[in-house]
Automatic annotation (TrEMBL):
It comes from the Eukaryota. One of its GO terms (biological process) is neuron projection development. GO terms for cellular component: dendrite. It comes from Zosterops borbonicus. InterPro entries: Neurochondrin. This is Neurochondrin. Belongs to the neurochondrin family.
């Protein structure tokens, strides 16, 4: 046998010599046939492969691919087949597979896949798949394949069900795993056609193929564009729902249930609950899904050595996605999919599952913190804490120091932890971004800082300093983003929620604000950020949060150097006064011929989110006026006093509710007490009359007292 192999190598060597020295095409062709025969027989090792490449390079295979004149008596594609065999041989060397000469041949490879395949040309198709697989494995490969049209060619090859179509599907799975967004951006109709075929096969299958397709299908369910936007996408979702309902309603083994749960998780990740139809069958299916997910989480996480089994973390992560949907659906009041009885049952079942998540997280070791599964577990617990504050309180309080430490570690280290399937890793678009654990924990922290025990634990764990650093970082991200109006970003949402946490601390722990330097640093950021935010009307809710938090903190930190009439302090208070003063206007009252007080058009769409902040801001501003002697002048400069006096004298008092009257009066009284000039402006605009009309007794008294004091001084 050794001698046969030796003879083969000797023949190959002679052929390579002939290839180098051939004087005409027929000699070269004869030698080439022997070389490609050896290549196809698998007799070529890495060293010999390199010798073949050194002998002929890329030039010769390129000539073969372009040649349209086969030798006498040979099939028309003979030269092309030989060229492809040589390229497939070269592609087994990763260095050559990523060479520009190979990447330039991608359109040719696509053509072969799209050409009719007769029995004589199957080897060409096999060689093309070998080349494409090798290209995909290189650094630049995925990008080149997407831009040069291979996704479309592979889709067509799979849909044609010709020779090697399974390999086309495997390559598509590989490409989507690396560059899902780019693939769907460029070739959505073709990928949708593949998903259509896969979903039909899934619904029809009655054997193990059904469970094999459960493994494949998640790769073809895009996060964008939403499948619900097209009729073809909706048909796919309908088939997948029916197929999954059939599968999950049957008695299953673990190996059958796991892929079904992963498919359900990927559908929820992409479409929420929109793929589940309304009605009795849909609500039963949704309840079953969440129930199965909770059981799986408990079985997996309550074990002494959880998640030892290969692939189990992916299944539990998919179950987390289903549980998160369960929380949202249990809280949904408009067109709910679930009935109230189902909601109550599911909340009890989810509580037990979240108990298992907490049990698991309490056992996590320091060296495991980079595991993406820990991130997924913290994220789903954050979703529970955001909505369900009374349940598992004791357990959550005990876990808080770990959650703060974990969030701090990821924040400080810019950890590359990624949570599949909740984050797409697109290696053609740079490295994965650090994961933001705080973003998912903030809503829960906001609830917890309103209560004594959890607040004390969060303060002891150093949460305020971490949140201040986080606020600063998120502010920098926001200011680097486009200034054009756009949907609320996660950055803006995180900043708003962080303000909510700080507002709770300011109200419930003012001594902490006074002594902790963190809050002085935060005050500096707020002073600078509000004047930039306020002119951008699409940031009104965030501006309301920043203005109110800044005003409330200024009351506590009134002695700090940053607030002693500095430029940044004056700009901040000027912006805060503009925010407060522009919230209301006079408009025609339909019930009478007069005018009524109304929320300004610019504030109307956000008023539900900011009205409480506006009232708090008014209260805080009233508290700041006696502390900062320069503030009344700022109010005069802004023209607020004249504007408010005119507004109140024009509108019907019946249109101004008591809460508003109280808010306006508090600020007006403080301004009148602090500044003679302010009092004079109020009096000159019939202040005494409208104060009486609105029942502002404190303002009436203040104006009378100040007026009396002034007359006495004048008399003396």
């Amino acid at each position: 046998m050794a001698s046969d192999s030796g003879n083969g190598h000797a023949t190959l060597k002679r052929c390579l010599g002939v290839l180098r020295d051939a004087k005409n095409d027929s000699e070269q062709f004869a030698a080439l046939l022997l070389v490609t025969k050896a290549v196809r027989a698998g007799e070529v090792d890495a060293k010999t492969r390199r010798q073949i490449f050194d002998a002929i390079g890329f030039t010769f295979p390129t000539r073969l691919l372009l040649s349209r004149q086969p030798p006498a008596g040979c099939p028309p594609h003979t030269f092309r087949a030989l060229g492809l065999t040589l390229l497939a041989c070269f592609c087994t060397d990763p260095e050559l597979a990523g060479h520009s000469q190979i990447l330039n041949k991608i359109p040719t490879f696509n053509d072969v896949l799209l050409s009719p395949c007769d029995p004589d040309s199957t080897s060409m198709v096999d060689d093309v798949y070998q080349c494409l697989s090798a290209i995909l494995a290189t650094a630049r490969g995925a990008r080149a394949l997407v831009t040069k049209g291979t996704v479309s060619a592979l889709c067509q090859a799979y849909l044609n069900s010709g020779h090697g179509s399974d390999r086309a599907r495997t390559l598509l799975v590989g490409l989507l795993a690396i560059a899902e967004a780019k693939c769907w951006q460029k070739d959505a109709p073709q990928l949708l056609a593949v998903l259509s075929k896969l979903s039909s096969d899934f619904l029809k299958a009655e054997d193990m193929t059904k469970f094999e397709l459960c493994e494949v299908l998640p790769h073809f369910i895009p996060l964008s564009p939403p499948l619900t936007e097209s009729s073809q996408g909706c048909e796919c979702l309908s088939r997948l729902y029916k197929g999954l309902a059939e599968v999950l309603g049957s008695k299953l083994s673990q190996s059958q249930r796991d892929p079904a749960l992963k498919l359900a998780g990927s559908l929820v990740q992409a479409c929420g609950a929109e793929w589940i139809p309304a009605g009795s069958a849909g609500s039963k299916f949704l309840a079953l899904l969440v129930n199965l997910a909770c059981v799986e989480v408990r079985l997996s996480l309550e074990e002494p050595d959880p998640l030892e089994v290969e692939g189990k973390k992916e299944v539990v992560t998919a179950c987390y996605v289903l549980m998160e949907m369960g929380i949202q659906e249990c809280l949904r009041e408009e067109n709910p999919l679930l009935e109230n009885v189902q909601k109550m049952q599911l909340m009890r079942i989810m509580e037990e599952a979240f108990g298992a998540v907490i049990f698991y997280l309490r056992q996590v070791k320091q060296e495991e913190l980079q595991d993406p599964f820990i991130f997924a577990s913290v994220r789903v617990l954050g979703a529970w804490m955001a909505e369900e504050t009374s349940s598992l309180k004791q357990e959550i309080c005990e876990l808080l120091p770990f959650l703060v430490d974990y969030a701090r570690k990821l924040f400080k280290e810019g950890s590359p932890a990624v949570s599949p399937p909740q984050a797409e890793l697109d290696s053609t678009e740079g490295p994965a971004l650090p994961q933001d654990a705080l973003r998912f924990l903030l809503p829960g922290f906001c609830h917890l800082t309103a209560e004594d025990r959890p607040r004390d634990i969060l303060i002891s764990a150093g949460a305020p300093a971490l949140l201040c650093e986080y606020f600063l970082q998120q502010w920098e991200v926001l200011t680097s983003e486009s200034t054009a109006p756009e949907p609320l970003t996660s950055t803006e949402m995180s900043l708003q929620t962080t303000c909510g946490v700080f507002l709770n601390l300011v109200v419930t722990a003012p001594d902490l604000v006074r002594r902790d330097k963190t809050f002085s640093s935060l005050m500096d950021v707020l002073l600078k950020s509000l004047p930039l935010l306020l002119p951008q009307k699409h940031h009104l809710v965030l501006a309301a949060n920043v203005a109110t938090l800044g005003l409330m903190m200024a009351r506590i930190l009134s002695g700090s150097a940053a607030l002693q009439g500095t430029r940044s302090a004056k700009e901040f208070f000027g912006a805060a006064i503009r925010f407060l003063s522009q919230a209301h206007t006079a408009q025609a009252d339909p019930s009478s011929d007069g005018l009524a007080l109304a929320v300004s058009p610019a504030y109307l769409s956000a008023w539900d989110d900011i009205s409480e902040l506006w009232f708090l801001g008014m209260q805080a501003l009233a508290g700041c006026i006696p502390l900062f002697p320069w503030l009344p002048h700022a109010a005069l400069q802004a023209g607020w006093l004249e504007g408010l006096a005119q507004l109140l004298s024009r509108v019907s008092p019946a249109s101004v509710d008591l809460e508003l009257v109280t808010a306006f009066q508090a600020v007006l009284v403080e301004l009148a007490r602090a500044s003679e000039q302010c009092r004079d402006v109020i009096l000159s605009h019939q202040g005494t009359e409208w104060a009486n009309l609105y029942g502002m007794a404190a303002l009436e008294q203040c104006l009378a007292e100040q007026g009396g004091a002034s007359s006495t001084l004048g008399g003396k």
